[in-house]
Design goal:
The chain has seven helices and ten strands. By secondary structure, the protein is α+β, with helices and mostly antiparallel strands. The chain has one domain. Strands 6-5-4-1-9-10 form a six-stranded antiparallel β-sheet. Helix 6 packs across helix 7. The termini are far apart. The N terminus is likely disordered.
Length: about 220
């Protein structure tokens, strides 16, 4: 009986080993590389960040049913008029007063190639001097379908061709924003970027740029 039990256990172990052998390469290929990062970019006239904020405001003002938050730390969502009243009464500003935006990105390389996506946008008003940032508007792209629709389907027209729409997902692409604006990388993989991380930041920007153009 012991010999039969030993044979049976050996067979089970062999089956498990074979399953690991066959599944592991597929799982490894499914997710070859994953990275998250956060930048902060200025909101100025004639910039993609300004156009994106104006478009979000236009959408939320036309849809009274939308609920939003002022910051990622807030658990409860509020109606847009409540947010506007709170900002006006407590801070004497409006949603359009935001002058900086934190953009969270997720990058992945898998069997389908390179994927880049914006996961959240956090608009703030940063006063001059040593005053604290004022939370204005936070939107989670993955949870709020309407925000993703704005990124994918809305944008600005080209100067050379007004019939051609350049969607915000292209205008706010990581490599484009970091290279063409005064945006700064503030987090890489949930770790705050401090002085001395310049080499790591340059390496990330170069890698994302290469992956972006090689995937086209």
């Amino acid at each position: 009986m012991n010999s039969q039990l030993g044979t049976r256990l050996t067979g089970v172990a062999a089956a498990l080993l074979l399953s690991v052998f066959f599944l592991s390469p597929q799982q490894a290929q499914a997710q070859r590389w994953l990275q998250t990062t956060q930048i902060i970019a200025p909101i100025e006239s004639d910039t993609p960040t300004r156009a994106m904020l104006d478009t979000l405001i236009n959408v939320i003002e036309r849809k009274d049913s939308l609920m939003v938050r002022r910051s990622p730390d807030e658990r409860e969502q509020m109606a847009v008029p409540e947010v506007q009243d709170e900002l006006l009464n407590e801070e004497s500003i409006g949603i359009s007063s935001a002058n900086q935006v934190f953009i969270d990105y997720r990058f992945a390389v898998n069997r389908d190639g390179f994927e880049e996506g914006i996961t959240s946008l956090y608009f703030i008003f940063r006063p001059t001097g040593a005053e604290e940032d004022i939370p204005v508007l936070y939107v989670n792209v993955k949870r709020e379908k309407w925000v993703n629709e704005v990124l994918q389907q809305k944008g600005t027209t080209l100067v050379t061709n007004e019939a051609a729409l350049k969607p915000f997902r292209q205008q706010l692409a990581f490599a484009r924003i970091v290279r063409n604006t005064d945006a700064q990388i503030v987090e890489i993989g949930d770790r705050k970027v401090r002085e001395g991380f310049e080499a790591k930041k340059r390496s990330l920007v170069d890698k994302i740029t290469r992956l972006t153009y090689s995937s086209r």
